[in-house]
Design a protein that fits this description.
Blueprint: E1 2-9, H1 13-22, E2 29-36, E3 42-45, E4 48-51, E5 54-64, H2 69-80, E6 88-94
Antiparallel strand pairs: 1-5, 1-6, 2-5, 3-4
């Protein structure tokens, strides 16, 4: 099992969500995140300077079986990218165990509903 953590542009969320669902990823968690990167810039709008170095993002957390790792990463890369600086990051780590609280199922079986 793998845990995928992705930081994406807030404006790309709906596209990312749809692409993940189309890829068979039915559940993930997300929350608002803010961060500061290497880019330091400000933009002027109607005579007011805005600091854009702290940008709103969404933090996604997805747990998948190993067999679904590549298609999940591909879905994120294809839907979250704009080609500009600040598109985000994807982090992948290995999970030792997963347990479904309702049934006590462990491992891969806890991540999906069997037919």
């Amino acid at each position: 099992m793998k845990k995928i953590e992705a930081i994406i542009r807030k404006t790309k969320f709906e596209e990312v969500k749809e692409t993940l669902h189309e890829s068979g990823i039915e559940f993930f968690s997300f929350w608002d995140a803010r961060g500061v990167g290497m880019a330091r810039e400000s933009r002027v709008y109607r005579g007011i300077a805005y600091d854009t170095s702290s940008i709103e993002r969404l933090y996604l957390q997805i747990v998948v079986r190993d067999v679904n790792l590549d298609k999940t990463i591909d879905a994120l890369l294809n839907s979250a990218a704009t080609g500009e600086v600040g598109d985000g990051k994807i982090f992948i780590s290995t999970l030792d165990e997963s347990i479904r609280i309702r049934t006590g199922e462990k491992g891969d079986e806890s991540l999906y509903i069997k037919d």
